[in-house]
Design goal:
This protein is of the alpha+beta class and 133 residues long. 26% of the residues lie in helices and 14% in strands. The chain contains 4 helices and 5 strands.
């Protein structure tokens, strides 16, 4: 039943519902029916069980990793390093701002040192909220 068209894997409530509808099938057949497979060069389907199981666990609202990076896709983790961009800017990515619980409009005071930049959140009410970059 393999086709050359790429099927977008189901996620969230749609995935849970489809798995419930397919209760009589094996887990491999369920994974394939939910779009968790790829085609080998010879055109045979290869089931991606790990992706299927992880998506199902996430769809059920279970978070196994207590230190999630916020994108929910298992992307790369924060390295705590940044590089000055060609235009001279320093960009602090969303992984860091999400980890700190920052929201659009939050303000910081910038203090320059000889070899460091210190960002202190304004209006946080906590004097220990200084973050060095």
């Amino acid at each position: 039943m393999a086709t050359n068209t790429k099927v977008k894997p189901l996620t969230g409530p749609e995935l849970v519902q489809k798995v419930k509808e397919l209760e009589s099938l094996s887990k491999e057949e369920k994974a394939k029916a939910c779009g968790y497979y790829s085609l080998t060069p010879s055109g045979k389907p290869r089931v991606n069980m790990m992706k299927f199981m992880n998506a199902l666990i996430e769809a059920e609202g279970i978070h196994l990793d207590s230190n999630q990076n916020g994108n929910g896709r298992g992307g790369r983790s924060a390295s705590y390093k940044i590089t000055v961009q060609s235009n001279g800017n320093l960009l602090i990515g969303s992984a860091y701002t999400k980890q700190m619980g920052l929201k659009p409009g939050d303000e910081f005071e910038i203090s320059l040192g000889r070899k460091h930049i210190r960002l202190t959140q304004l209006g946080s009410g906590e004097p220990d909220q200084a973050e060095e970059v």
